[in-house]
From TrEMBL:
Pfam families xref list: Ltn1_1st, LTN1_E3_ligase_6th, UBC_like
Gene Ontology CC terms: cytosol; RQC complex
Organism: Cotesia glomerata (Lepidopteran parasitic wasp)
Location of this chain's protein in the cell: Cytoplasm, Cytosol
Broadest EC class assigned to this enzyme: transferase
One Gene Ontology molecular-function label: ubiquitin protein ligase activity
EC code(s) of this entry: 2.3.2.27
Superkingdom in the source lineage: Eukaryota
Principal localisation: cytoplasm
Family: Belongs to the LTN1 family.
Record protein name field: E3 ubiquitin-protein ligase listerin
Pathway: Protein modification; protein ubiquitination
PANTHER family the record matches: E3 UBIQUITIN-PROTEIN LIGASE LISTERIN, ZINC FINGER PROTEIN 294
Amino acid sequence: MGKNKAQRTKNNAKPSNSARSAEFLGSAMPNFVGFSAVKDGGYVPVLPGLSLNQLNEVEISAIDSNFQVVFKKMNKKDATTKFKALQEFADLVKESPLQTVEAILPFWPKLYSTLAVDVEHRVRDAAQITHGVLVKKVGKSIATYLKQLAGPWFTSQFDPFPPAASAASNSLHETFPDKKYVDAIVYCQDEILSYICYNINVQTPQLLNITHKAMNLAPEILEAKYQRILICSLQGYCSYLKQAPHQQIEKTSSSHHQIINGNKFWKLAKHEIPLIKISFFNIITSLIENCKDILKDSEKKTITSIMNTLDENEPGVISAVWECMLIAIDKIDDWYTYVSIEKLVLPKLWRVLRSGGQGCASIIYPNLLPLISQFPKFDLDKKNLFFNFFDNMSQGFMAKNVLVSRSEITAIIKSYIECLRYTILLNNNDIDLCGKLVKEQLIPAIESFITDYTPVKLVLFNEAAELLRYWSKNRNSEDYKSYGELIVIFWNELESMFNRFMDRESETFEKVTVDNIWDAQIKLLTALKCSSNVNRKSLRIKFEDTDKAESKEQLYSQQSTDDVLVKEINNFVTKLCIKLINNYDRNTSKNIDPLSRLICQFESQFLFEEVCKVYTNGDNLLEFYNKTFKVWLGNNNAKVNEIVKIIFTLLQYMKDDDKNSVLNSLTSMNNSKVLNCAISCALNDKNMNDQVIKSWRKDDYTSEYLSRLTEKVISDNCEESKKVLLQSFKSCGDDFCISEQAVCGVLNVLCDYLTQSEDIAESLITFTSQLSLLIWNYKKLISATLKLFKTLFKMSNKDSLSLDLKESVQTSWTTGLMSIYHKITPNELFKLQEECMKIMYEKMYSNDFKTSDGTDLILNFLEASNNYNYDEALTSLIRFNNNIEKSSLDEWVPAVKNFILHTEIVCGNFNSVNPIKSVSLECPIKLSSEPEEEEQGMPEKMMRCLKWSLFTTKLINKLIMQLNDEYEDDEFESIIKSSLDNSSEQLRNILLITSLGKLYNDHYKFSCNAEAIKQIYVSLHFECKSLREKIPLNVWKEIILDSLDVDKYWTEWGSTFSLFLQYYSDDKIYFSEIKSQAREILSEYTTEDGGNSVSLIQDVKAVILAQLILNDDDDEGNTLSLNVLEKIIKRNQMDKEFLLFNRDISSVSWSEFILPLELVRLLTKSLQKVPTKMTTEMRDAAVIYLSSWLMSLNKSIAHHKDLKLQCFVIALSQLFCAIKNLLSRVTEKDFEEIRTGFVDEWNNIFADDINREIANTWMYYADLFNNETEFLTPILMLNYLGNAIKLLDGVIFFKESTDAPITVTSDDLIKFSLKLILSPIPSLQLSAHHALNRLIPTLVEQDKNTIEQENFDAKTLNIYKFEDTILRTQKIVDTILLDFKLCDTITCTVKPYTDSYTYTFGYILTWLNVLEMCSHAHADLRYQYGEILKNDYFSSLMNNIFRLMPAKMLEFTDKRTPLFEFVNLFKDQPLLNLNDSLTSSTLDHVVCWVYTNCLRYMPVLARQWWSEVESRVGSTMEKITTLYVSPILCREELTVNKLNDVPNLTIIVYPTVRELNAVYRMDDSKLELKMILPTNYPLGTVTVEPRQHAGGAANWKNSHMQLSIFLNHQNGSIWDGLMMWKNNLDKKFSGVEECYICFSIFHINTYQIPKLSCHTCRKKFHAPCLYKWFSTSQKSTCPICRNIF
């Protein structure tokens, strides 16, 4: 049992700490004792482990107290404490005076000896570093204590922890550099040897345990420490033996004998630790080498220990053992007498050889040759000894560890051949033994390697070949006569082996094995024929200044061959070939491959002549061909390729006539395989320059065949045919390898197919690209080369190609173009440039073209086609646009310009910038009777113009940038000027098109390609600015403005010219000049008296200038503008006709029309900018004039093509919007004066007629242009009318008006709007949606009145007016989205301007209107709406919503935080502006907003759908709601207290935790409840928790239950529920009885109090509750008293 820990003493704030205790002891100690107490176990008065033993002369006071403390820490158990103490000690040694450090030297050796062998490696490392610091500090003073330190210091150099060993070695060598190191070892050798001897023979883990008893070390730690000390001592001893002089070793022989004769020393040979065994054998090796006499009495032990360990399998140990063995057998003459060779040495050696060296072959086998040199000394049968040796060695070839290692098998093979060579050399006179070694060892080894051949086994073939060359070289020597016989034996045995393989191959081996065997056989023969360059002497570095004679001599020696051996090899190969030919009929397929390889490898005149003699009467090679190879080819042989190779090898040794005969016979066979092989062979390097073969390659038949081969490549994608064609197109010097006719034929076939076909395999394009790289090398330019270049250029424009293939093709034609540039004439080059650039520009006009890719491609072409001369490239680009593209631009640009000018006039912007110069009484554009025809295809024309501008501008910019890098400033300006000499029209077109693009983008965002046009325009905008900055200013001005009539362009282009000038220069100073002139003109105009003195043009200019300066905020300009307006109004009082009131606008001229038109615009801008500064007369005039002009519009409404009418419609729509916006601002402070009379006058007199006129005009034109989707101007006009529709007063259309000239009822407007909701024109859909929204508040009010009636019919509710549209669109949308799963990560993305988008968008807009009705309805009416929608419509809506939501949002629903890009889709109401572009993102936004409104206004229906769908869909819906919708709805519900002023009710809201506390007080009674909104509100149920209440809980349970039911099962908000709860309590406190069925005062649906009472018990019930009781119980009795009701 352990002792209980004592309580800490009071005020003992710090815990115990050994280091702090040591400091206290050190500062107070009077004496210091030595370290002998550690060993003696004496009394330790102050520091445990220290005593004064043998240190009486040391002055205790001389030891610094800091060192005493550090010494104390060094004796601690904790390794970290000792480590830090050593670091601290090193710092103290460095900082302390020398005298102080020298005083501690007597105590250091003992402490160092302990720390140097510490169990912790960090401590040992620190001890050595600290020791080095100390020795360096004290210098020679260490000499006194050197012998005490020598043992651990010397052996620590071999510490297994490298940093500690390195620190010990460094300190020792720094202290004793160079020769002094050996002197120091000699000086301390007795101490070193004693220390080593003790550690080897005496030291044990048990003794270490006694020494470290106080540390309580674990046994495994002690064992590890002992092993480490032993390793250090053994390696230290080995090092001593190597470094100490021989005489000194002899002097200390007694110490060596003491070590060697120890009981434990020889047992180390069998130690389990490899490092100890290695150290032991290294010691034996050193002893044998340096002092063999010491081992004289222990030779038997030595040899026995070595031989017992020969079969060790540890690589480190085996290396040491075999090194030791070699030294031993070399130094000890009679070593074999100490052991049994037959019983000990040979069994272990055979075991090692059979196992392939046990994974250490590279170590063992190089040592075998010295070992077998000892075999003659053995008293054994030599023949059996050698055969056993080689037998076991052969078995080692098949060892698993050998087969997987190249180094292992190489070492074994080389050793095997070396030992065989040495054995034969040793037994040269014994021909029988040597012959058997060849027959039974060498040949079987070669046969086994051939049978199971791998590339690494080639080493044996090379080594055997070297052996054979050695024998052949010395075959004539008197001393080695047997070598000649051995060679004969070798060839005979080799022939027998080859014959055996041929005889067995058809029966025994599979095809793959046969191929491998023949491969190995041929490799063997090749090795025998050719010397392998594996001699390391050939790897020497050779310098240029080497003596030439010497280099020639070396070359001669390397090239020298043994002619006799070569002849023997040729004879052997000839015999082999003959046998293969003879065996053709027996085994065709297996013999032709090796025959082909043999003939190609060993071809010679001798070979063919010898073979020919066998099959013909002489040496007629043609006859030999006809009898053999020709016959083989005629038999449809599968090995055609190999046979043809043999034939073409044979051709090299035939006469020219015979060659022609052979080639013609190949042609006449009409075999595609034969011809393919023949052409390939005819084009190889050997046959390239043969004149006969060259003529055959270029004949007509070969040319035609290559064309047919090309067609085969196209149809079959034959790889073999591709190789033949590629080989055929190689160049032969300056000439074609094939005929020019063949080249053109192949290229024409390829180019025609690639040009005419659509679906082209990428492999064919790759092949053509590869072929082209060969063609560009031809020096002669042929027509087919240009055709190929154009084809490749077209291919690089194909979008279907992969990026890598495009780059490859582009690289190919770029290389070709640079080659063509030097071979083509200037005119041909210009024509080529124009053709290629035309291809590129036509591609650029396509819809799927990316401008960035195209500019890089054409820039690359311009650079290469002009040899990277960039000024010529720029000139080429300008010339192309002037010559080729000008005709297209002359057609497109005027059409687009007129269209944009028409738009600017219609919208009132034409004269808005510089009316001083642009205003004219004539129409600025020529009026057309059929404007639709001119407008047709306008978006496409606009797109083409912008693309041309962007493409050309980018190219010019890039070329100018290259020129800027190439030339200095002055030279650059002149180069640019000359290059752009003819570019003025192009640059003006670029600026004009950019201006037109901006205006198109501003006006026609609703067009089908608006997004694409916007992207191109934005890029073009920046490119134009960049172009202006890159071209020098002088050059820019000269090109653009010098030939430009500014006044003329102001008149013709109007506001468009202002944009042109902005792109020309950013300087807008002319705008301020125009405005300053405008003030002067208006001042003069307003001061003139009399109408006759002012011309019409002056009136028009004055009205337009008045609009212009209204844009400023200065009072002076505004006053001038209003004065102009006042003057026109006064003039109208005198002349009622000039403003065209109640006139047909189409019948008046433009000059008559322009002043009233501009007056409308001036009134509009005045109402927008300065309504408070206008007089009452001016504001009244605006309303009166609008009413009159609308009558004029009604008379002219049929003339919709008239430009004047289009302008008038837009202007009046803007005026109406300005008046409505002003009326909406009358509540502001600055508008009090307006509110007094203007609003009443509007509402009482003008509102009805004007609203109806606007609605009628919109309905007329919307119906007229409903399906005119391709025309933009009518839609633009309808957009302005639609903006007016958004501001209609919906109540007016519900009034009955009998005296109004135009009667548009609410039903008319609803019916028409629901029709337009499915219009193919998106802006009409939006207008209809906005029109319905203006009517909805009144529709809801009607429904509210309807449900208040008793026994009302739900079918009369106005929401049924939307039913047909919802049902119609729902069927279509359901069909469209049928294939998409709910909440799948692949949702439906509906493309704009398609029928699918029209119906889907109309469907969603209709639901937006329905939900808008729900938003205006109270809880009771919303319940009725829900009942109507829930069955057939709402579930379909939810299904479609989750099929249309963005896929990315559905994919990332598992995130805890919402994706920022989707938050606003649920939070912000979509703007749905009429002029905005509709995209898939727009539909996504509307869909998400509809989902938010479904949860906001119809939560019960959403909750019901959520509970019924499958779990996967429900989970996704809940996650989306939690992430995106719930935070919005919770914030809306809880941010504002809507019942703040309700009596008896107090509300406290906690928005952050989604909680609400409600307290109801009545007299002394108090009722409190808490409502908690769930995180997935409103899908999750709202928790209602009762808090404090007066009376029992049962009294108020029904109230809480009714509130909970309302919140979770009705579509009301929490504020509606709280109000119902409060009313319920009010009634309860006022004495109203609750219903005895539902136990609530107010019915949950109708909110009626109980009215029906039982005649017997007088209890009251709700009518719906009672009806439900009767229908479910099947009785008509009272629920309480059970009497008949």
